[in-house]
Amino acid sequence: LPDGDYVFFIVEEIGTVPEDCQPGTPMMKEVRETALPYFYRIEKGHFSRTKTSPGTVSRPMRVGEQIVFHPFRAYPPLTFSDDCMFGKDCLSMRDTDTVSVQLPSGTLPLFLTLSINCIAMDKSVFQVYDGETLIHSQKVDTGMSIGVSFKIPERCRKRKRLDLSFKLVPQYKDPGRRTTSVFHLTEIGLKAP
């Protein structure tokens, strides 16, 4: 391949025959196209991959900006840890993954809003961390959709960065049970009061 930026797709053609059909019935075909979760670059014969779009210039998130996740879009205010994966309409991450948000300078209080899908089998506590520091928690019932809004701590605003990770802790702990949650972040927004 010549030097340049690339996106690769897996194209699957799946053929099925209904169980109650007559012999000779043509197969029903379904085509699925799946994007691999990286951007690829070939430069002077060297191959590299990245989760951020090549040529993206990072910048702080703007007040009022709402980011909705889709595959292969540039997200200049965000940086992702290596294990974060882009899905069809979300950023999938485990409790060990981080998404960093560049914050604008200024003295106004700022609020971050998140829309997350996650399976909560029992009543739980959803926790948001900045690095190792707990910055927000809220109780969630069983279900899948979690809406979160919280004030960004002043120390994060001064640092102009928020290193987000999430945990889902069962409200009634079973000491012998260790679960790892997968969070599907669908939207992230920044607001002022």
Could you walk me through the main structural features you see in this protein, from its secondary elements to its overall organization?
The protein is mainly beta. It contains one helix and 16 strands. The strands form four sheets. Strands 6, 8, 9, 11, 14 and 16 form a six-stranded antiparallel β-sheet that branches. Strand 8 (85-86) and strand 9 (91-94) form a beta hairpin.
What is this structure, in a nutshell?
With 193 residues, the protein is mostly beta strands.
Mean pLDDT: 83
Kindly, what is the distance between the CA atoms of the first and last residues, rounded to a whole number of angstroms?
51 Å
Could you give the count of β-strands?
A: 16
User: Could you name the ranges where pLDDT drops below 50 across 5 or more consecutive residues?
Assistant: none
Discrete helix count: 1
Q: What is the 3D form?
A: globular
Radius of gyration: 21 Å
Query: What about the largest sheet?
Result: 6 strands, antiparallel
